[in-house]
Amino acid sequence: MKKRTKGKTGWRARLSRLRWPAWLAPWRRHILVGLGVAALAMVGALSYLYVSYGRIIDARLHGERDRTVPRVYARPLTLQTGQSINEADLVARLNDVGYAQRARVARPGEFAIDRHTVVLISRGGDQAGKAVRVTFPEPPVARRRGAKPPPPGPQRIVRLQAADKAVERVTLDAPLLTAFMTGTREKRRRVALEAIPPRMQEAVLAIEDRRFYYHPGIDPIRIVGALVSNVFGTRTYLSGASTITQQLARNFFLTEEMAVEQQTRQRSLLRKIREQFMALVLETKATKDEILELYLNDVYLGHRGSFALHGVPEAAKIFFSKDVRNLSLSESALVAGVIQSPFYHSPFSNPERAKERRNVVLRAMADAEYITPDAAERASKEPITVSARALDTEAPYFVDYLAGVLDTDFPGIASKPGVLDIYTTLDLSLQRHADDALRDGLAKVDALLARRKRGPRRVAQAALVAIDPRTGDILSLIGGRSYNQSQFNRAVSARRQTGSTFKPFVYLAAFEKTADEGGDLTPASMVWDEPTTWTFDNQEWTPGNYDNEYDGGITLRRALAMSRNIATIKIAEQTGYDRVVATWKKTKVGQADVKAYPSVALGVIEATPLELAEAYTLFPNRGTIRKLRAISSIVSGEQAVKPKAIAGPNVARASTAFLVTHMMRSVLNEGTGASARGAGFTLDAAGKTGTTNDLRDAWFVGFTPELLTVVWVGLDNNQPLGMSGAQAALPIWTAFMIKALAGHPNAGFEAPPGVSFVEIDRDTGKIATPICPRVTVEAFLAGTEPLGACEIHR
Fold first, then answer.
1. pLDDT tens per residue, range 698-725
2. Quick check: 423 and 73 in contact, CB under 8 A?
3. Any idea what the CATH number is for the domain that residue 105 is in?
4. Helix pair angle (351-367, 329-338), 10° resolution
5. Residues 223 and 160 grouped into a single domain
6. Backbone angles phi, psi at 732, to 5 degrees
7. Residue 150 has what DSSP assignment?
């Protein structure tokens, strides 16, 4: 048997038997082998990183496609013949629903202006796919040459045509209020890349990544160019080396690392390397157009209030109140310029810097031959004009309230994959009228407070809630004077004493007792208004009227119209304080633990503006509460969910509710709310002023058959405002209602069965004689009409 020779075996033996070139010394061989091993290790590491990062990117991209994006819509845009609206407002509303302005319309979702007519092709609603023509009055013409034309009259829609046929009413699309990401406070509105106009894309490419479509994710040429430009050049817009793909990788996949850098204010070289490698991997996982679409929809563009703004479509809406497709060249350049430093270049806080940056973008676009130098020059001369409404246009307090409703009534619905469309009851036109009325009204309150100069400066707050009392739909909701300054929602969460707005419930309880027990208390009954002391629980209480004046004998109608405290307490005493409290509790809103004390008649009961609005729905609804709602329907995938209508409690008879409503008409016609008539509000309406103890809170609640609005004005620290409801809240209510109901017919309150009308003398409450100087038609429960004639005027 042959013995095995000793020696090296395995790979080492094979390596030693290799014939190496003579010039390759042993030490060189070792280096070469080491380099080979290192190369293999590097390939393995890169492969591992590619697979690892690829999984992260695949998961995020897949999750992004399936991510729940709640899109919140307002009520559909509705146009009707005779509607009070001008051409500019109509264009703004078409921007709200994402219509693109063109020279000529060719497809759904486009509109054009032809002299005094707006032509559009409806994308949704009852005329989907049809051409709609909205005609306004022709502008006035001077009667003779050289003379000035007369001022234009009120702007209204004079003619509506759909498919060349005259129609009275057209319903279009529902405007998008906002699209927010669940679990975060972000605002964005995702659109496809083709919905972003080329000039907007080109503005971003010119300033952020001109070679985007030619590099593999990182751009060596740009890196070298940036170094040269930073050291020697003057083209400051080339000073950054990060590509769009790198920016997307950084902000989309490396958010934790970026958060650490922002906290420590130290840049990490390792994070930069990861960013570049991830950019290379990302380019193999998505097309260039997909990357650009993700970037344009996700890029951070600053904060408004507590919301982070993401994406150029959202910026177009917030900055200019426009759909992104309708941005001008100048506006597109401004949005692109903000990307580099959203706070520093903010058009809201730093308009001059924003203008300078916009002009840099325009020069970059001309240098890249996207536009001509002349076009850049013309656009650079345009002023910076951003939307004065900014974030508040988007009804942020309403959106916050809506988020709470979703969590409570539809738990888990936002966790389902895909797009979630939430169609709300909000009327965007009324919301804007409410914004204007609240802003102007608070400016007057501020001026009055400033003139008084008592103590430290006081900043009044306000809330407004407008609803359709027939359905309970919330049409407008404002929770404060500025969402940017305070996100506390006073309309929903600020429970304050209701003051004299509670008095109608006292009279309602009194009439209910009359109906139940066969009494004779009516709106024409007399009550003595004089200083009075009450003793309750061994304590004396001597309230007074707001103006410290007393009217002696007055009718119940007059007592409510003039908000007389003493008369109202006497009616509550006669009715029974417990009965008054029981009537309020039937509404099932507001404060529940109410004590049956005499002071209850003056509104010590607390409620939020939203709760008070719901309680008041019983008056125009014949004694039955309408539960308020903010959501019309929810569409998730193929499923549509409509919230179930919740029947509100029946609080009183239709006849007694009408009597109190009829009495509240006098508040506006001759009582504490009469200044609304002087300000130009002419429609039939009912309402009640409210002022709490020491003038802390100012209220006004007023309604027509189709619109009920509550306004509260006060201070957050619950200190006295020093103004009555008629001074602070009523002007806001009046300004809002005038605009909200412009062009609406004057629909009165219809009397239910069981109510009769009799002409009476206003001073005595008895049947009027032919010589009574002050006569009114009074409403009575059938069987309670006065029997005797006026004894004074005979």
1. 999 999 999 999 999 999 999 999 999 9
2. yes
3. 3.30.2060.10
4. 110
5. no
6. -65, -45
7. P
**Residue 367, in any domain of the structure:** yes
Element (H, E) at 732: helix 730-740
Measuring CA to CA, how many Å separate 332 from each of 312, 326, 339, 701, 713?
9, 9, 12, 44, 40
C-beta neighbour count of 447 within 10 angstroms: 9
Indicate which residue of 110, 186, 202, 208 is catalytic: 208
Point out the domain boundary residue: 394, 410, 431.
394
Token couple for 471: 């359905």
Low-confidence residues of the chain, pLDDT below 70?
1-30, 33, 44-69, 142-147, 149-153, 180-185, 225-241, 253-272, 305-306, 388-393, 414-418, 453-456
User: Do 425 and 630 touch, CB atoms closer than 8 A?
Assistant: yes
pLDDT given for residue 238 in this prediction: 45
Active site residue 614: no
pLDDT at 256: 56
Question: Which amino acid, one-letter code, is at 96?
Answer: D
Number of domains in the chain: 4
Q: Is residue 769 part of a domain?
A: yes
CB 778 within 8 A of CB 524: yes
Q: What are the φ/ψ torsions at residue 412 (nearest 5 degrees)?
A: 85, -5
Query: pLDDT tens-digit profile of 78-96?
Result: 998 888 888 888 998 898 8
- Give CA separation, 308 vs 89, 165, 188, 384, in Å: 28, 46, 9, 22
Fill in the amino acid letter for 10: G
Q: Is residue 439 part of a domain?
A: no
Whole domain around residue 506: which residue ranges?
491-740
Among residues 346, 387, 476, 500, the one annotated as catalytic is 500
Cα separation, 686 vs 163, whole angstroms: 41
The CA distances from residue 240 to 205, 208, 289, 535, 556, in Å, are 13, 8, 22, 80, 77
Cα distance between residue 14 and residue 535, in whole Å: 115
500 is catalytic: yes
pLDDT in tens, 341-400: 999 999 988 999 999 999 999 999 999 999 999 999 999 999 988 876 554 457 889 998
Rounded CA-CA distance 477/399 in Å is 9
Q: What's the confidence (pLDDT) of residue 245?
A: 87
- Rounded Cα–Cα distance for residues 346 and 493 (Å): 32
pTM of the model: 0.82
- Assess whether 202 and 338 both reside in one domain: yes
| Residues 534 and 648 occupy one common structural domain | yes
User: Phi, psi (5° rounding) for residue 521?
Assistant: -75, 125
E strand map for 514-559: 526-529, 534-536, 539-541, 552-555
477 assigned to some structural domain: no
- Residue 457 confidence (pLDDT): 74
521 with 629, same domain: the answer is yes
* Residue tagged 């380099």 (tokens): 35
Per DSSP, helices labelled H in 300-395 are 312-320, 329-338, 351-367, 373-380
